[in-house]
Please model this.
Amino acid sequence: DAGVIQSPRHEVTEMGQEVTLRCKPISGHDYLFWYRQTMMRGLELLIYFNNNVPIDDSGMPEDRFSAKMPNASFSTLKIQPSEPRDSAVYFCASSVGRYNEQFFGPGTRLTVL
Amino acid sequence: GESVGLHLPTLSVQEGDNSIINCAYSNSASDYFIWYKQESGKGPQFIIDIRSNMDKRQGQRVTVLLNKTVKHLSLQIAATQPGDSAVYFCAERVQTGANNLFFGTGTRLTVIP
Model:
């Protein structure tokens, strides 16, 4: 298995632009998580899905952030409009079952100018 | 809210020596703990976990110790190798709630050849 796949690996955009991050979880995993990592706040859970259904989005910072999972093999995290303070590394992770090991993707480094 | 913190932000050790990375947690309801390793440009990678009904768990060259009395967690790496150089995070989870991992800020381990 290729593991969790994220794209793009790097994204540089200007303030006000829409940004879409993509994730393909490991096949067979029924949980998908989106995290954000910054130097100041470390790793923070933004939202997670179970069987494509959003379960807890309490970590989503603002209405500018939205996430979808249209099928078991694909999820997106969208920021619209983007702001410089959104600059961070965004990780997607997946797991089998609620309490089992989460496998992380390589992350997307987002820079908003 | 929950918080997980680390005593030492950086640690340098000689190759072949043993490393000890410490972590403090504050939520007494946390009953599952995980250590992750994050290499530069990569996502966190699971190393070892421990449940609160255990005091010690061993893996290959790694040992995790849990002291619930003082809410302290440690990761011991035996015969540290250059490939062990990375940032190490402890994370806690309260299994009675949502499947949310709360990560510490991380300790950077540098192995000196």
